[in-house]
Design brief:
Chain lengths: 334, 334
DNA sequence: TTGTATGCGTTATCAA
DNA sequence: TTGATAACGCATACAA
């Protein structure tokens, strides 16, 4: 048995397709009795409208897309989970595309954009210029984890203030003087802002400017390798402020290998507060980000844009704050 | 400027849309000169065919879907990454849907299925009966991490043999006698098979049957809680075989808290070989699964089904094997 | 209150 | 070698 179309329903109910369409969309006047007949026919045939037909007829595709660099760490998976929770609830489809640092991904993204009503574009995927071009091409875009571009609204998390607070904590409360920042500010706006907060804390404390960041690529192995280098070197740092949790856990491994105790010999902090670090040994001091909500809000903002509503906050910054556990030197349970 | 359609191209090239279509699809005879004119028009107008039109005209939607329970751990994200690598390379779209243990997800999945050419359905999402119904409804389905149902091909990883080997290693090489399995066999076919291998190892070694599994729910916290219970109890186990890595790391935390040393006082093993465990302290002995390839192969199988090709292996089982590090008691580096 | 006819952008059939 | 035209499934202006 073929899948029934709107004509089949109309025939069965003894009406025209227009009437069926009206019943389906709840628009326009339909006599009670007629409506019931149509509804009955729909039920009997197990009819479900083809969203292809709908989309082609100009009703939008009821689909959102997200463009991310890759699915290596937990971060983007959580962003996607947040978006998915919203799209699923609203009966929309969610399409995903990883750029994987490919060169010619402009076309890919453009092609991708054609299949959705709007796009969430994360940091470290496509350059601002390309975002601007998308905007000009009437593609609805929402930026995630990066500042607004050319009128495209952004949704992101706080970075500067928590980094400042965290670093100040290490300096003022635990007396650290030789701190290093592990992460590459050039890699993403988020990391850049964290670095800024790190620097500011030094200024605020009247310390000399910190040494340049230890450029590392956000994965655990990068943290491990960076720490191995640092811990083997002459002037060993007293505290490592890592740009994310995975690198911090990499530092844990290098420290264990070198016989360096955390936090007695080395304070370590992360960023993200991924589930694993709460049960790390010792529990990691980090900065909690509402990543899933970030995805949800991005999707929500995108939907508003698509509906033509005014976006209330074109640059929404969600609060994130330090979680002091034990790797910074704080006492267990206190 | 509106987005050009096939008529615009035809008009510009001074031909009919049929000819344009032929050039586009490389089918049917087209004079060299004509083709060039059409190609020029396409280029000048920046024309790109609408996939909506294509799909409606019956060419398929060039989209694959995956249904998963949630994005909590690294596992499903990696599966998705594997699928995405294939779909992106082939210019297909990838749609995702999480069931989140929702009740009435039958309709959601059905609706979802209408938007794609085929579906990868993972374990712990929808019941076999529902999969069978999808199959009957002419939805192309490939199962992932669960056995074939009603003719739907499956792609999964080895479980029994590695579990047998791993457990035997603990028993024979490290002399363990009081082993417990942490995980719920009822939760997924994968876990059930791992439990079977665990049991078989006891039989093979001539030991009495192991105690019942410590039912825990795959997340780190569940492992932590389970281990806390076990380590506080009277008859403390000597080895914990965990159904996945996250739970094993939870065990790490509980052990540290209880002053139990790994592996001296307690051997621990995981499953999956997620990146983090390689740099755990101590490095975790686990079973490596080619999860990303699993996703890729599932997508590949699905594409074959869609193209109507014979699926070479209706029940593809990818090999997975133990990685002996230090948490089982093996020496560093050997 | 209901129906007719047309457009959306493509592919495919058949005729020229 | 090319073209006119009919699907595909739906929404909607317009007519009745």
């Amino acid at each position: 048995m073929e899948r029934p179309n709107i004509y089949a329903v109309a025939a069965r109910a003894g009406v025209s397709i227009t009437t069926v369409s009206r019943v389906l969309n709840g628009k326009g006047p339909v006599a009670r009795r007629t409506r019931e007949q149509v509804l009955a026919a729909i039920r009997e045939l197990g009819y479900q409208p083809s969203w292809l037909g709908r989309a082609l007829a100009g009703r939008g595709q009821a689909a959102l897309g997200i463009v991310f660099p890759d699915l290596a760490g937990p971060y983007h998976a959580e962003v996607i989970a947040g978006m998915e929770s919203l799209t699923a609830a609203q009966g929309q489809a969610l399409l995903i595309l990883g750029t994987h640092g490919r060169d010619r991904c402009d076309e890919m993204v453009l092609d991708f954009a054609r299949r959705v009503d709007g796009l969430v574009v994360t940091a470290r995927t496509i350059p601002d210029a390309e975002v601007a071009r998308l905007q000009d091409g009437e593609v609805r875009v929402v930026l995630l984890g990066r500042p607004p571009v050319n009128g495209a609204p952004a949704v992101r998390t706080e970075n500067f203030a928590p980094a400042l607070k965290l670093t100040t904590h290490l300096i003022a409360d635990h007396g650290h003087r030789r701190l290093r920042f592990v992460g590459d500010p050039a890699l993403s706006p988020d990391v850049a802002e964290r670095w800024e907060g790190f620097v500011q804390a030094h200024r605020d404390a009247g310390l000399s400017a910190p040494r340049s960041p230890v450029r590392a690529n956000l994965r655990q192995e990068d943290g491990y390798l960076a720490a191995r280098r640092l811990l083997g070197g002459a002037s060993r740092p007293g505290a490592l402020v890592c740009a994310n949790d995975e690198m911090a856990l990499g530092v844990y491994a290098a420290a264990a290998e070198a016989g360096v105790r955390i936090p007695q010999d080395l304070a370590v902090t992360g960023w993200d507060d991924i589930p694993l670090v709460r049960y790390a040994v010792p529990p990691l001091t980090t900065v909690h980000q509402p990543v899933e909500e970030l995805g949800r809000r991005a999707a929500d903002t995108l939907v508003r844009r698509i509906l033509g509503e005014e976006v209330p906050e074109p640059d929404l910054v969600l609060p994130s704050s330090p979680v002091f556990r034990e790797s910074c030197g704080c006492r267990p349970g206190g």
